[in-house]
Amino acid sequence: MASRATYQGRIASVTQVTPLDRSFVITMDAPAGTFAYAPGQFVIVVDPDAAKPLRRAYSLSSAPEEGEDLVVTVRDMGNFGHAFYAFTEGKALLVQAPQGRFVLPPDEAAPLVLVAGGSGVTPFRSYLRHLELVEHGRRVWLFQSAQQPPELVFHAEFARIADAPWFTYVPTVTRAAAADPWSGRRGRIDAALLASVGAAADAVAFHACGPGVFVKSMLALASELGVPKAQQKKEQWG
């Protein structure tokens, strides 16, 4: 397979999202339309200044309707992630055009259940920001799991979107101390929690994203509840 072309980009701004995650706005120098994308797709980012070539795929956490700049949200983990997390405004990058099939299903009538572990929520932010900006008939649930409350990526934003009747947000934390003031749900995502959606399992589109072990367990729960394999999608690492 021929390699994809890369284009010059530059970090325009950096925002601290959680104690572990930063969002980077990347302005691209490329022909118009080169970086058109569907919500949920990813880009390959290359550090041209590294002595040893470093590259990694990052889901876009922005929506196509928000303009031509790209937004990726990076957790401080792994060789590339640790380096990327420290990048500052003005840093040059090479970026491949968006790709991937982890996108919104075409059937708007199917209830959409999104399940995210840790920084796996980033493509779902792209879904949700897109859905806020377009007319649609979807019903969407997002179950997000993190170890500690401050590590719930985009928590305040998802809580705001949950004011809309089409969206339900269910954050849960697994390692909060008993004295932590967190008033939300504690514990892992389980079958009972997913079943609270209340929709017929054979009608649901189920998307899971996060570390491999997490995603495998979530897909097993989906199958246990009766979601057909053909209606399950995953994106994972590790």
Characterise this structure:
The protein has helices at residues 79-85, 122-133, 155-161, 191-195, 212-225, and strands at residues 6-16, 21-29, 42-47, 54-59, 70-75, 92-96, 112-117, 140-146, 167-173, 185-186, 205-211, 232-237. It is of the alpha/beta class and 238 residues long. The chain has two domains: 6-96, Elongation Factor Tu (Ef-tu), domain 3 (Beta Barrel), CATH 2.40.30.10; 112-237, Nucleotide-binding domain of ferredoxin-NADP reductase (FNR) module (Rossmann fold, 3-Layer(aba) Sandwich), CATH 3.40.50. It has a six-stranded antiparallel β-sheet, covered by helices on one side. Strand 1 (6-16) and strand 2 form a beta hairpin. It is globular. The mean pLDDT is 96.
Which features does this protein show?
2 domains, Elongation Factor Tu (Ef-tu), domain 3, Rossmann fold, 6-stranded antiparallel beta sheet, 5 helices, 19% helix, 238 residues, alpha/beta, 6-stranded parallel beta sheet
SSE blueprint:
Layout: E1 6-16, E2 21-29, E3 42-47, E4 54-59, E5 70-75, H1 79-85, E6 92-96, E7 112-117, H2 122-133, E8 140-146, H3 155-161, E9 167-173, E10 185-186, H4 191-195, E11 205-211, H5 212-225, E12 232-237
Parallel strand pairs: 7-8, 7-11, 8-9, 9-10, 11-12
Antiparallel strand pairs: 1-2, 1-6, 2-5, 3-4, 3-6
Classify the fold: give the CATH topology of the largest domain: Rossmann fold
CATH homologous superfamily classification of the largest domain: Nucleotide-binding domain of ferredoxin-NADP reductase (FNR) module
Poorly predicted spans: none
For the record, the CATH class of the largest domain is Alpha Beta
